[in-house]
Structure formats: structure tokens, C-alpha cells
Amino acid sequence: MELPDGTILMHERAPYDPVKAHEYYLRTRQLTGRRKGAPRFTVRSRSGTVELTGRELTEQRAYAAKRVNDIKNRLAELGTKLAEARAKAQAEESSSRRKARRTPTAADKSKAARESKQYREKHRQTLATKRRRGSTRKSSKSRSEADPVARLEGKIAVVKVRLLDAVAKQRALASATRSN
Fold it and tell me: Is the pTM of this model over 0.90?
């Protein structure tokens, strides 16, 4: 290739050949877009893969660690409440057994009979109405609603599931791979 002043354009030791240069370009071209911004990280979890920037990844890791810590604290708190509820239930059960074991004396029996007679005289109309209707209401509360120990055990099971999910999320964030 000649320049306007008549000299030959050289490429290293050989003269520049534009046709040969174009063929080389066509053979070796690999078009890639411009990579903008911060590097991206791929996080794989049960819900799929997500691409995050470095800042988002550190924020997610901090949030996951805080969440796991909060859930562990809640689990410990529920564990202490459960121990207290079990101790209270056991104490109530032992006191009710002692009362049940004791047989009523003659004085207790006569006192109960007097109180029963007074109640019947005072509530004669309501008792008659109940007898006619045949209404025998039972408590609608189930065992889990009435028993604080069972209710706490249910809460603990739910919190343990949440903890497992949070730990899985934290592990997925910890094993994030760089995607570019």
C-alpha cells in the first residue's frame, strides 16, 4: 500500500497488504461485548441461580449471617421457655396428684353437698333450661391450644425449619462463584 507521498507502508519487514489483513481479521475475530461495571458472582440455591455484584453479595452474606444468628437466638429463647413450661406443668401435675390421692373427709363431703344444694336453689331456672335443651357443652380447645408445652414444641419445630433454610442460603452465598 502506498502513502500519498509515494512511500510504501511497511508492516514489520513485509509491505502492508490490506486484503491479507482483512482475511486475518475474519479468521480470528471473536466479537465480545464491553464488560461494564463490577464483577458479577453466580449464587446457586434451591430456587435457581442469581447473579449478584460484589457489593450485593457482601450485603446478602451479612444479612444471611444476621438472620441465622437471630434464628439461633430465638431457638435458644424458645428452648428456655419450653424448659420452664415443662417444669411448671410437672409441678402442677404433681400437686394435682397429691390432691387426687387424698380422699375427702366427712366434713369435705358435707360442705360439697351444702354448696351443691345452694347452687341448685340459686340457679334453678338455668339448670331446668339446660336439662330441657340437653345442652352439654364441651371445651372447644384442643390439646395443643390448652397445653403450653405442646404449643412451644410446635413453635420450636417451625423455627428449626427456618434455621435450616437460612443456613442453606448462607452456604449458597458462601460458595458463590465469579461469573466473569
Answer: no
